[in-house]
Each structure stands twice: as structure tokens, then as C-alpha cells.
């Protein structure tokens, strides 16, 4: 994706210019002494504050306090419920979705914008059309990369979006799609203010829409200082009711050991992704609660099939037969890990439990390499993520173990990484030939794995199919399943697709992982989420800690997995 890193750097510099004055202003307008501030130790910076432009859980977490969607997932489940749309109907042919909007929903305000009206159909049309129509005036703003919207095939699926009246929106699809409602319940379905966008466009500052977001959610955006903190304030006019806390802070802390130290010291109230080695200590700490969720995720080794020698199936099979996944799970993932055989998590419908894993057989792997013309092996780069993720708690350790495994068949790896935003940009641009990556479901549909990560549309430059694998038979099965309403029929098609995946080996699936979170016992109302989101609606603080802890401050981070 040419220019991605340059644009991202420009965005961060712009954010810094905006955020630092805002932080200074915040110091002059601090909350009252009795204000209840919840601090979440986040694992990284969001790549944008506009959820239409992000593809990571980190970026989506930053958006959920600010924005609402037409429909939403019931907390802790993948069940669709009303949100900004209080009801909807679907035409018999499955192509027309008509949404009735909730009345009197207020937008946030900031120094540049004071809304003159509540949420209307115009805002929904704007929010979808910006991503959908290349000729929309806001489409190119902030780089115009709507990668996830495109990976889901929504530009070709949507035929029309219209405001029937101020409180009714109709979306017409070109064909029926069983994934449409869950897809628009994801962060890319966030509804923005068309009035705010028009105000900024008239002022010649349209990019502020994505740097100083305005939504209808339970918290309004206050400030972002990259590598330090994201700050939000409870929105008193939120349609869902006043929140139990007055302020929410994301203290950006990439290192898991530092996050845990902050929670123990009371500088943060919650932290995700603790090191597996720390789980027992957290469990026995009287000040902390250890939470666990069987999340829908997959960690994998992608083999870019467009780059030699991984364009040769024999090489890909040899790699798969040389990696000891059981040792990786035991040594890195701990009690939450399960060795993976399929792209689909075992707790997601459509998963094929009968799928066979390639045997751990290094002599056979060496024979395959020799048949492919590499009797002495070859050299390659293996990229690993620099931050802990739900699907890979320690990328460097996994890379070390794979490096040792493949050395036994003559494949000599050089380990490579980059800071998280640049790493992701390289993955989506298809730069690495071998890369550790992963995925946490954004909805409860198998298409969110098979279609988004392995389909032909996202195999394009900038798409989330980082293996760049496009198999017409696989793609046809997944596309057909998307068009059908019957879950049993869809599951059979997904079973056939998984057989093709196993035969062609575009990835080596490594592990699925249960996810853990450490929280101080003062935290009330927090629920873990199977979709990997960290949500703070209805979350409060009890007891002496209800007034909140100290403001986040920089701490030495050290390399991933180290203790400063």
C-alpha cells in the first residue's frame, strides 16, 4: 500500500499538534475533585480515531466509547440487538433493509461544533456513503483507505442508501447477504454527524472529523497524546443513560509487565493481555480479579503465495510439517492456548472438528524441500508482531521457536519486526513472505474469518488477506455461503472450504487462545467480550477508588515481553 507509512506519520504529527494543546486545556478544566475516573491500560495507539479507517481491535476499542451503530451486539454475545435503529425490517428477497431511527438522539459537541439537531437519516446516509462512493466529498479525506469496508465486499454489495424521512433509512443490496447485519454492527458501521462534517468542510478542515471525533456514544472525546493517553468524558445527554463514571482514560502501555505493574499500583484499573506466566500471580492477588473469555480468534503464520519459494505448495507443506505447534502452545500460550488446525476457532459454528493437521515429520519435510529444488534449504525473513495480541501473547518468542524448528530442515530465518502501525502497514501491503499475524472476530459469522482473511477480494494490495492467496474454488464456496440464510447449509459449504485451505496451506494455523484480563476489585459492571472488544458502557468504580487514580504518565517500556 504505497504511501501508507508516510500518511500515518503525517496523521500522528497532526494529532500531536492537536492533542497537546487539548491536553493543556484539559489541565485548566479538570474534573471536580470527586470525579470518578476509570483508567484502562491499553496495549497500543489506535491507527485512527475514525473507526471507518481502522482494522485492529486497538483502533476499534478507541472508537467504541464515542460512537454507536445502527444495530449492536448484545454485550458478551454475538446476538444482534437494536441500537440507533430501534427497529428494522428486511424485504422477503433479503435485499431491502429499512431502519427506524431512535428519536431525540443527541450528538456530542466540542469547541468547533455545537449540533443544531438530533440524529437523523442524513447522518446514516453520510456515514455509509463516505465509505461506499468514491465521488463522495469526504471519501478521500484522511487518505481514503476504507480497507475493511472493501474487504467485506460492501462497495459492490450496496446498491442504494436513502433517507426515506428524517427517521427512516433504507439500504438496498444487489443481492441477499446473511452477513450484512453483523457487518454493520461492527465499528465501521459507526454513525458520524453529517452536520459536523459540513461545518468542518466549510472551514477547510475536513480532516478534523477523524482527529476530533463527534459521535452519539456514552463518552465524548477530549484528547489524544500518542504513546501516552486517550481521554474521554462521560456524555451527560447520552440516549442510553448517564454512565457510572465521569471520565475514561486509555493509558497507552505496550509492555505487558508494565501494564501489570500499573494495575497493581492503582495507576490503571484494568489491563488486557497479561503475560501467561503472570496469570497465577494475578489470580492469587487479593486486590485483583482475573477474567477469562473464550474469544473467537486465530494466530497464524502467513506464507505469501505470490513470493518464491512460497508459491510452491511443496515448500508450504514442508514448513507446516516442521513446526511443533504443541510446543509453541505450551511454551507461549499457556493454559489459554489450543493448537489450531483450521482458520475457524473451535467455538465458532462452521468449524470442522474433523480437519486433519499435517503431521510433525521433519524428514518428510526435508524430502518435500528437495523435490521443490531446495535440498539444502533456503534463507527467508520471518516477521513477528512487536506487541502482545489476544491471538499471540509474545510474537518474538513464537518467532524464536519457529526459527529453531525450521533450522532443522535447513530453512534459515532472519527475524524482523517494526513498530505496530508500520508492521500492520507492511502486512496489508503484502511486503513479507513469511509473517506472524492473527485475527479476532468482529462478528460471530465464519465469513469474518474465511471471507475477510482468505477470500479473493481482500487478497488485493491493502487487503487483509496477507497470504495473497486467491483460490477460485474456495472463494466460490465462501461467496455462495454468504448469500444463503440457512446456517446448516452454510456450515457445509464452510467445511468444504476448510478442506481446500488445509490442502493448499496458505497459512500454518498456530493457535486459538482464551483471553485474560486483570482488573482491580473496585471495578464494577465490566464484562469480557467474545469479539475481543473492551467496552466501558455501564462500568463503574466502587469504594475508595471511585474517585480515580493518578493521571497516566510515561514509563519506560522496554522491548516486548521484557521487564524494565
Structure, described:
This protein is of the alpha+beta class and 564 residues long. It folds into three domains: 1-47 and 217-292 and 517-564, 3-Layer(aba) Sandwich (D-Maltodextrin-Binding Protein, domain 2), CATH 3.40.190.10; 67-206, Dipeptide-binding Protein, Domain 1 (Dipeptide-binding Protein, domain 1, Alpha-Beta Complex); 297-513, Dipeptide-binding Protein, Domain 3 (Dipeptide-binding Protein, domain 3, Roll), CATH 3.10.105.10. Helix content is 31%, strand content 20%. The strands form seven sheets. It has a four-stranded mixed sheet with strand order 1-10-9-8. Strands 4-5-7-6 form a four-stranded antiparallel sheet. A hairpin with a 6-residue loop joins strand 2 and strand 3 (80-82). Helix 17 runs antiparallel to helix 18. The protein is globular and about 70 Å long. The two termini are 35 Å apart. Mean pLDDT is 90; it is low at 1-33 and 554-564.
Amino acid at each position: 500500500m504505497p504511501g501508507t507509512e508516510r500518511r500515518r506519520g503525517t496523521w500522528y504529527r497532526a494529532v500531536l499538534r492537536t492533542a497537546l494543546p487539548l491536553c493543556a486545556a484539559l489541565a485548566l478544566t479538570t474534573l471536580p475533585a470527586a470525579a470518578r475516573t476509570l483508567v484502562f491500560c491499553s496495549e497500543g495507539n489506535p491507527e485512527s480515531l475514525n473507526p471507518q479507517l481502522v482494522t485492529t481491535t486497538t483502533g476499534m476499542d478507541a472508537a467504541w466509547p464515542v460512537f454507536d451503530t445502527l444495530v449492536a451486539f448484545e454485550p458478551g454475545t454475538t446476538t444482534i440487538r437494536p441500537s440507533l435503529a430501534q427497529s428494522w425490517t428486511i424485504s422477503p428477497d433479503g435485499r431491502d433493509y429499512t431502519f427506524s431511527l431512535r428519536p431525540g438522539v443527541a450528538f456530542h459537541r466540542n469547541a468547533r461544533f455545537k449540533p443544531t439537531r438530533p440524529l437523523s437519516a442524513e447522518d446514516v446516509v453520510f456515514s455509509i456513503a463516505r465509505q461506499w462512493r468514491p465521488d463522495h466529498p469526504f471519501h478521500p479525506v484522511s487518505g481514503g483507505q476504507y480497507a475493511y469496508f472493501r474487504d467485506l465486499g460492501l462497495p459492490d454489495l450496496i446498491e442504494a442508501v436513502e433517507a426515506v424521512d428524517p427517521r427512516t433509512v433504507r439500504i438496498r443490496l444487489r443481492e441477499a447477504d446473511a452477513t450484512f447485519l453483523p457487518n454493520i454492527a461492527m465499528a465501521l458501521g459507526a454513525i458520524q454527524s453529517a452536520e459536523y462534517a459540513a461545518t468542518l468542510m466549510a472551514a477547510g478542515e475536513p480532516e478534523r472529523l477523524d482527529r476530533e471525533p463527534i459521535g452519539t456514544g456514552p463518552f465524548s472525546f477530549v484528547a489524544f497524546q500518542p504513546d501516552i493517553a486517550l481521554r474521554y468524558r462521560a456524555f451527560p445527554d447520552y440516549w442510553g443513560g448517564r454512565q457510572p463514571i465521569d471520565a475514561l482514560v486509555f493509558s497507552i502501555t505496550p509492555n505487558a509487565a508494565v501494564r501489570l505493574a500499573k494495575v497493581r499500583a492503582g495507576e490503571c484499573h484494568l489491563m488486557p493481555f497479561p503475560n501467561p506466566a503472570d496469570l497465577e500471580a494475578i489470580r492469587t492477588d487479593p486486590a485483583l480479579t482475573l477474567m477469562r473469555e473464550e474469544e473467537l480468534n486465530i494466530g497464524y503464520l502467513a506464507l505469501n503465495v505470490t513470493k518464491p519459494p512460497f508459491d510452491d505448495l511443496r515448500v508450504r507443506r514442508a514448513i507446516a510439517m516442521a513446526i511443533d505447534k504443541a510446543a509453541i502452545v505450551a511454551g507461549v500460550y499457556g493454559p489459554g492456548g489450543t493448537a489450531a488446525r483450521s482458520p475457524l476457532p473451535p467455538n465458532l459454528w462452521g468449524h470442522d472438528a474433523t480437519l486433519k493437521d499435517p503431521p510433525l515429520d521433519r524428514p518428510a519435510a526435508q524430502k518435500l524441500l528437495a523435490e521443490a529444488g531446495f535440498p539444502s534449504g533456503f534463507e527467508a525473513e520471518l516477521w513477528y508482531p512487536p506487541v502482545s495480541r489476544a491471538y499471540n501473547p509474545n510474537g518474538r518468542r513464537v518467532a524464536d521457536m519457529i526459527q529453531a524448528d525450521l533450522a532443522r530442515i535447513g530453512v534459515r530465518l532472519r527475524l524482523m519486526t517494526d513498530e505496530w502501525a508500520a508492521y500492520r502497514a507492511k502486512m496489508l501491503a503484502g511486503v513479507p513472505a513469511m509473517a506472524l499475524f492473527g485475527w479476532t472476530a468482529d462478528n460471530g459469522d465464519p465469513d469474518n474469518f474465511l471471507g475477510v482473511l482468505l477470500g479473493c477480494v481482500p487478497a488485493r494490495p491493502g487487503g487483509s488477506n496477507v497470504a495473497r492467496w486467491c483460490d477460485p474454488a474456495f472463494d466460490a464456496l465462501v461467496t455462495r455461503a454468504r448469500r444463503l440464510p440457512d446456517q446448516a447449509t452454510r456450515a457445509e459449504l464452510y467445511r468444504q472450504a476448510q478442506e481446500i485451505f488445509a490442502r493448499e496451506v496458505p497459512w500454518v494455523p498456530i493457535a486459538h487462545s482464551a483471553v485474560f484480563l486483570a482488573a482491580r476489585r473496585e471495578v464494577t459492571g465490566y464484562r469480557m467480550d467474545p469479539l475481543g472488544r473492551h467496552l466501558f458502557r455501564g462500568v463503574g468504580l466502587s469504594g475508595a477508588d471511585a474517585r480515580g487514580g493518578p493521571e497516566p504518565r510515561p514509563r519506560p517500556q522496554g522491548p516486548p515481553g521484557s521487564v524494565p
